[in-house]
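worker-03 picked up job from queue 'complexes'. Input manifest follows; two sequence lines, order preserved.
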Amino acid sequence: MSTPTQLHSDGQIVLEKDRPGQPHRGKVFAAIHAHLDDLPYYAGGTVAKLISEGYTGYIIRTSNDEKCGGRTTAENILSNEQDHVRMARALGFKDVFDFYYQNHEMDGISSIDIRGRLILLFRMLKVDTVISFNPWGHAEENPDHWVTGRAVEEACWMCGMPNDYHEHLEAGVQPHPVTERYYFYARPGQPFNRVVDVSSHIQKKVDAILECKSQGGGDSGSQLRARLAKQGKRLPLLGNDDRTANREYVRQFLLDDDREYGKEYNLLYAERFYYLDQRRPEKSKVDQYVEKNAVSL
Amino acid sequence: MATGMALGGAPAHPAAAPPPDLPSKFTPAAYANPASRYGPFATPDYYTYADDLVIERNQPGKPHQGKVLAAIQPHSDDIPLYAGGAVAKLIDEGYTGYLIRISNDEAAGKTAGYGVVQNEIDNHAVAKALGCKKAFSFYYRNHRMDDCAEIEIRARLIFLYRVLQVNTIIVMDPYNHYDENPDHLVAARAAEAACWMAGGGKDYPEHYKAGLKPARVREKYYHARSPQGHNLVNRVVDISSYIDHKVRSNVANKGKGPAGAAGARLRQQLAQEGRKLPSLGNDDETANFQYVKQFLMDDWMRLGERFGLQYAEAFRYIGPEPNYRENLRKYVDTNAVAL
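worker-03 finished. Artifact:
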């Protein structure tokens, strides 16, 4: 059920369904998240969908995830780094970038430094579309999320301005504006104006979550299976091996939100976003007016 | 004028009588520079000379061919005033030179807008006068750079060092004691830290995916800032053959600094009084050049005289590290025995 925060500017929520062929061929998106498991949960299905429809995707992780993984700080950094590469591969990303800012402490870093790095990447990769945190999303208690979201939002338009970091031109890196944004629906109550049908891409999303072992529950199934075995019990749902246990656990227990978001639209699974389209029409209003009204001298 | 011994008691190069008021039990640790007769913008109050001080003289041919020099200055007049001769010399000896200005120089001008425009023009003109291939400006706000994120300035310099493949930098000394201008210290610290980070694989690895290569910045020339400076000097560069380049780079600074069109202004003022200085010649261009050479280069002449040179600039020079790995390999090759 829609509430005022969920409405598009024209009062509608747009339902984005699968599109035939490769309508996005030649376009590039960057998914920017702070932690290993952010992107897979908030947008794993949408990423898989956009790549299947022709986009080239890149993933950028801004933190080093040192606080999560159940091991020492150093070991957590390593295991999250390795999981991140595998998770990106599962979703079909072309390349992976890690900035390694200190986990949970990104509100202490220089916002202009992270923005500058994103501007270089957006230009270098010729990013048309970003998928990231809503920098204005309420109830966001994790500073890494909003710091990342703000830097992404600012970098999107500045990367199209030639006077920002003009030295990039020296390396042949040209200005390139980002014109479409998908902001995560990360916390209850955050606004959304687009629901993406990810039903046919849910397996990819599951595959991505399965790689989130340091954090994100990717091996929860096998852990539960082992625990039950010690008690002389088993769950038939979890099958007879760890891989099956993990996959079925994710499918059964970790996709409730996606199922819930889809229900209203009779979809099996859906993801929510606040979508911003800043693509310019081929002809501006002035061009159209001139075309219609210009007369010979 | 006080003179004395170098730090550590080693004999300093300039021989002079001991200072009369300093008891003999003390060994002076710094030398006072002769005060300028015509302006404050040259050598600092004191230099401390290292006992391995080198006079860098002209080198024949193009010994630096293939090497890249970045002259980094917070403001458009810093390199011309303090290191213009050395920059011109190194470029003449084969370096490809680039000039990087960190601030926008808005504090010098009729309005901030006029100031930044004139200083932008000046920065390009300075680069041209010194023979630099290109000039860059970062445009951080003048006199407010202690409000900037130093890490971001450093990141931009790392990018430039890598894309330009810089081998050597000339910049304000990051350890300029008593420097009251925050822009100087921030720019110098960023430039220094960027040198070694630009060579590493882990700092800003995304640069490599953009096609950049690590930069090997192996040489640094740090210059002092007058008059507050109290600087360690281990290299005196003979700029006698390049004094006119230095003069022209100072004349190029119309928007700020003591040079620019000061000669023409003095000439016009004297003309209104019915007088003239013959040394200023008969036109504004000559007046500007001669004014700078006669009055503003005075300190560099006095510094040169102390080392038997016509004109000199002084630096804290940091050269390439020894090849430790190669030395170790040679030792092993020489001394290893069969098991």
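worker-03 released lock.
The longest strand of chain A covers residues 56-63.
Strands of chain A lie at 14-16, 28-33, 56-63, 95-101, 129-132, 180-184, 194-197, 270-277.
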